[in-house]
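Table 4 source record.
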Amino acid sequence: MPSKSVDELQGLVGETRRTVSEFVVERGKVAEFARAIHDPADVYLDERAAVAAGYETIPAPPTFVRTAYFPRYRPDDTDQGLGFHEDLGFHQPRTVHGEQRYEYDRPLLLGDELTGRTTLEDVFERDGRRGGTLTFAVLRTDFTDTAGEHVVSDWNTRIETGRAIEGERE
């Protein structure tokens, strides 16, 4: 169980924090990411292929925005839990990543510089089988460009098990 009750956690729902700053979509990082995910599409490496495919310039792969959470893009006061790690009070050894989804208004393109603001969208519990009560925290990060235009929303669900799963160590 988290160190706070679900009622206490639900009191944080709707709270928003700046969690990503100066996230620049760079050519080398896009190419490196495309190779890391084994995506051979030329649009991530070749400007001409990207333009021929209808992009203004080289786009980033859809899940590239996940790299915005790397420490180099976090404001100094932001923790690894998208700004809510301490407030959630989840016990780290029993916390897992449950779900990730993205909704784009437009593709990420080379040269984009984004800022992210994360909102605690929901907190709830469910009965688990082997790990006891499961506590879910749904976090949504909205990314905007330097013009203030919304580019993408990213939902990240964290799950804490109520106890160590039988046969596993904490």
